[in-house]
Amino acid sequence: MSGRLQFDTETSRIIESLYLTPDVVAQQRQVLTALALREGERVLDIGSGPGLLAHDMAASVGRDGRVCGIDISEDMLAMSRKRWRRSTLDRIPEGRHNQPTLPG
User: Fold this and answer.
1) What SS3 state is found at 97?
2) Which domain holds residue 33?
3) Which candidate, 46, 64, 47, 45, places its Cα nearest to that of 55?
4) Is 1 within a domain?
C-alpha cells in the first residue's frame, strides 16, 4: 500500500457532485477572482480532481495561456479529460499527470 489517496470511479463521481454544490461553486468563483488570471498566463492546478477549476482557469487565460492539471487519481483525470472533450474550449490542457511529485 502506497499511502496515497486513490479514488475509484464511484468515489470520483461523489466528489465531483460535491464540487458542483452551490457553496463550492461560490468558493471556486472566489478563487478565480483572487487569482485575477489574464490572457496568456500559465497555471498549475495541483490536485485538480475532476478538472472543474482547471477548466474555468483555461477560459480565463485564453488561447495563448496554458493550464496544467495534476492529480494522482486516474479516475479523476479521466473525468477531467471527459469534461474537456465536451467543452467549448478548443484544446485540452497539456501536462495531465498522475505523478505524486513534481519533476525537478
Assistant:
1) strand
2) 9-86
3) 45
4) no
Matching residue, cell 478538472: 51
Beta strands in 32-93 (DSSP E): 42-46, 66-70
Residue of 16, 7, 30, 17 whose CA lies nearest to 98: 7
Joined grid coordinates for residue 44: 498549475
* pTM for this predicted structure: 0.73
- Residue 60, in any domain of the structure: yes
The CATH number given to whatever domain includes residue 46 is: 3.40.50.150
Q: Strand 42-46 to strand 66-70: parallel, antiparallel, or no bridges (unpaired)?
A: parallel
Query: pLDDT tens digits for 72-89?
Result: 888 888 888 888 787 766
Name residue 83's amino acid.
R
